[in-house]
Amino acid sequence: MLVRDTIANAVAAALEKASSDGVINVDSVPEIEVERPNNADHGDFATNLPLRLARAARANPLQLAQLIAERIESTPEIDSVAPAPPGFINFKLSESWLQQQVETVRAAGDSFGACDIGAGRKVMVEFVSVNPTGPVHVGHTRGAVLGSALANTLAAAGYDVTREYYVNDGGSQMEAFYRSVWTRYRQALGQDAEMPENGYQGEYIADIASEIIESEGNRYLDKAEATAVREIGDVARDKMVALIRNDMDAIGVSFDNWFSERSLFQNPDSPSSDYDRAMARLRSGSHLAEHSGALWFLSTAFGDERDNVVVRSSGEHTYFASDIAYHFNKFAERGFDRVIDIWGADHQGHVIRMKAAVQALGIEPDNLTVLISQMVTLKRGDETVRASKRTGDFVTLRELVDEVGMDACRYFFLARAASTQMEFDLELATRESSENPVYYVQYAHARNASILNLAAERGIDYGAGDVSLLTHPNELELIRTMLRLPELVVQVAENLEPHHLPHYAMELATAFHHFYENCRVISADQEDNELTLARLKLVAAAQVAFRRTLALMGMSAPDRMERS
RNA sequence: GUCCCAGUAGCUCAGUGGACAGAGCGGCUGCCUUCUAAGCAGCUGGCCGCGGGUUCGAAUCCUGCCUGGGACGCCA
Q1: Nucleotide closest to A520 measured between CA and C1'
Q2: Nearest of A131, A128, A130 to residue A164 by alpha carbon
Q3: What is the Cα Rg of chain A in Å?
Q4: Residue A239 CA, nucleotide B24 C1', distance (Å)
Q5: Can you give the distance from the CA of residue A66 to the C1' of nucleotide B21 in angstroms?
Q6: Residue A210 lies in a domain
Q7: Are both A444 and A547 inside the same structural domain?
Q8: ipTM
Q9: Structural domain that includes position A223
């Protein structure tokens, strides 16, 4: 149990006692909030319960604080309980309990920070899902980093997490892509072919075409155009997906599943496809209607501004229709308890209709959460870099990672709340790459590691170290900071806000640097022997905290760092 | 026109209704014979966009306005 909860329980019990003692009269008890005060002088935790109770109890909040505080039973965690104006109750953690946590953290190892608020529930995080028509660019990179860190944290919080990439391999944009490759293929073979109007201009199209020529020669030229486009398209799509997979690799993102849009329309094991069944379900609920020759989903019934077409008058289904089938598949077919979609800002207008569709399918709409990852504006100094796939003028994930590095890249994207637009200055990111927070954190870990390495070299066995010797303020500060990781996991998992991770990492690093500066660990002085052993234990525990934090963020934890 | 996001230190951004508003970067001073100075210590720096409201208490909630960005297709 988190200390926070222990304290909340103690407060609740004290309030109950005060009530049965007849000194406090309240009809209803508000939820007990236990928070970390901004000012460390106020202790480790505080509750504002007396302030919230004052009106209902018709009493002075400070007096209430007094009455509750004196009824709080002592626990191993709590050292002191103090009422404070205007009506807080402040808690200080006991030093001996804190010291003991060093052992607890070491013993927990990789499971440190884990909890079970997810209770094994199946949750899918679907993210990136860029159309395989071109390389992944910077905006998508943000979503990739966000999704993977979120998935990591949800897993730590006890959810059964599936990371999924939705491959949009159908639709008209893919058609344009297929035709673009076909055109470049023919041009490369000396034919007179003209790029379609909505074609993709990027150089990578020509690259793919020449790769195909290299491996398969000109054999597609002999085929009928429609066949050639389809076949060469399939090859090109597979190449694009492989490319995207590599890009994801470069940024440290992996998926459990790559889900094909086309598969929604073909289902060999069943008389009907996901698409057919989803549509049937909507039809039976009277959520579909035909007019102007098209089939519409009646989303206005769910508060949307207008209805949306699912089948065009041409008979082709829309992207939205695929998406309905896809979500039907996620919930009804695969049985996910919860689905989190991470979409780019350009899809924000689709959230309402997607939730409406889910509801119309008979699924609790709250089980679907759509996170919008806002725009990333790229700059090089004062110059704004436009990002457009069509013109081929954009900065790719690959270019970004080559320039800034994976860890820095992840850190910068993670550090900003998903809902806010961010500016990414490439020049600045490169220039400051040796002076940025990423290295501050990793350097702390490297310092940590080098102490342990030295201890190993000298064959020091600190297993018997006595943690009760850890009384220096910087030692206790470090322990306190380590202990916030489990709370952080809960917070990130509940609010789906991974941007707290880097901020916590900074604070952990600061606590460690302070400790490093003021508490010599491996002492040359024989008299400090016992303290050395105790501190080595603390260092080992801190290493656990660093590794867990960096792992959640998907960043590497280097044992050595040196300036070149 | 409707909707979404944002406006906090010179810059980039944290801040889950609480007790004197924070970090990194930048700028200015100091500190390496001891586990890595990618570090530490100190200084510099803010009508939390503006006006109302709710509250014992507002950067945080509500509302109006201003500024910037984005979305509003039988595209995906």
Answers
A1: B35
A2: A128
A3: 29
A4: 40
A5: 29
A6: yes
A7: yes
A8: 0.94
A9: 172-238
Per-residue model confidence (pLDDT) at position A20: 87
Amino acid in the structure at residue A182 = W
> How many folded domains does chain A comprise?
3
The residues of chain A scoring below 50 in pLDDT are: 388-392
Domain end: A40, A66, A93, which one? A93
Cα–Cα distance for residue pair A15/A64, rounded to 1 Å: 9
User: Which pLDDT belongs to residue A389?
Assistant: 43
B16 C1' – A493 CA distance, angstroms? 13
Q: What is the pLDDT of residues A58-106, one digit of tens each?
A: 888 999 999 999 999 989 999 999 999 889 999 999 999 999 999 999 9
Nucleotide in closest CA–C1' contact with A52 = B56
CA of A38 to C1' of B51 (A): 30
Distance of alpha carbon A347 from alpha carbon A274, whole angstroms:
23
**Residues recorded for chain A:** 564
Amino acid A29 reads: V
Report, in ranges, which bases of strand B sit under 7 Å from a protein C-beta: 2-7, 12-26, 34-41, 56-57, 68-76
Would you state the pLDDT for residue A527?
Answer: 85
Question: From the CA of A50, how many Å to the C1' of B34?
Answer: 52
The protein residue nearest nucleotide B11, judged by CA to C1', is: A428
- Which nucleotide is closest to A169, CA to C1'? B76
Residue A58: inside a domain: yes
Nucleotide nearest to A309 (CA to C1'): B74
- The 3-class SS string of A293-354 reads CEEEECHHHHCCCCCEEEECCCCCECHHHHHHHHHHHHHHHCCCCEEEEEEEHHHHHHHHHH
